[in-house]
Design brief:
Layout (H helix, E strand, L loop, with lengths): L8 H38 L51 E4 L6 H7 L6 H8 L1 H5 L9 E4 L21 E5 L6 H7 L4 H7 L15 E5 L27 E4 L23 E2 L1 H17 L6 E2 L1 H17 L12 H7 L6 E8 L8 H10 L1 H7 L6 E8 L7 E9 L1
Parallel strand pairs: 7-9
Antiparallel strand pairs: 1-2, 3-4, 5-8, 6-9, 8-10, 9-10
Helix pairs in contact: 2-3, 7-10, 8-9, 10-11
Amino acid sequence: MLNRTPTNTSNTINAYRKKRQQKGSFLMYGAIALVVIGFILLVVWMTRPGQPLGQYFATDTPTPTVTFTPTNTSTPTLTPTITETPTQTLTATPSGPFTYILQEGDTLPALAERFNLGPDGVLLILDNNPQIMEASGVYFVGQELTIPPPGTTRATTTPIPPNLSRGTRVEYQVLPGDTLAGIASKFNSTQEDIIKANPDLAEDVNNLQVGQSLQIPVNMVTATATLPPTSTPITPTVQGGQPTAAATTAASTTAAATPVAASGGTAACAFEENAQFVSQLQKLINDERAKAGLPALVINAQLTAAAKDHAVDMLCNNYLSHTGLDGSTPQDRVRKAGFTASLVVEDLYALHPAYGGNPQSAFDWWMADPASKADLLNPNTTAFGIAYVSSDKSLLGGYFVVVAAKP
């Protein structure tokens, strides 16, 4: 016989229902959680930069480019290298004159050498700065000067064409050291004719300004030619002046040697001599004669005395001329010194040593002047004497006189 325990079906149904209710609640809460999480993710995505709602929300990250702007302050440290360019102002421009401010210790010879102006450098500076000569040669620290470029040459007097008719006027610019008598000698003119052509000179014939323009009537007198020893002696009719030559012949006379003194009759002033200058000039002249195939000139004490006599007279009386204040001519002074001559030539040059007055500048000037060159290279002369005297109290400062002759 089979024995079984009886079962209650209602309890089983109730238990099943409870399980289903619990499972439904879990699913419902899970769905709600998923919706909430999805909503949160959606909101986060929508508020990101560049999304539809991102413009309404400030971003937490600052723009990093702003932090780099302070680095611009380091760039000015590169600019000091430009300060090297001012050194270019010390270089003279070859194409034209330039301005220079005089510094402590500057001298005109030193400036001429520094700027490569050559042997005529001081004269070139004076030509470009007439205010120095107008101030009696005074220049000062801080003064503004015009410096010519290297390679500049001085304006030289053009030889007078022989076919120019008497009285033809030419324009001439006064150079440092010029005198009216010297200018007249250059152009075969006379002081009186030059004054007539330039009435403003009548008040003071000695008031010539460097760079001043003058009208010069040429060939007003006949130039005196150098005569051979056998020619009849004559006295030149044209006075000398500015460093130029005047060739003269002298009668054969004998006179006792006399002490050197100012030919103008005035007491000799205080002056200095420079034996080295004299020796240098003697060598320059004889070297040039050797190049020309001519014999050297012999130094003569009497001709030296005559040269010194006239140099002292010009220095002490502030003039430059082949004719002394007492009317003496080169032949008169040679005769007075005791030299018997049949031919005498004399060449003059005056310029303060501070402005470049030295043997080389005198020699260069004479070589550039046809008449002076002809004197120094005269094949008929056999002896010469040279004198140099200087004084700071003299108008022109320093004088070279060369007297060459033939017995």
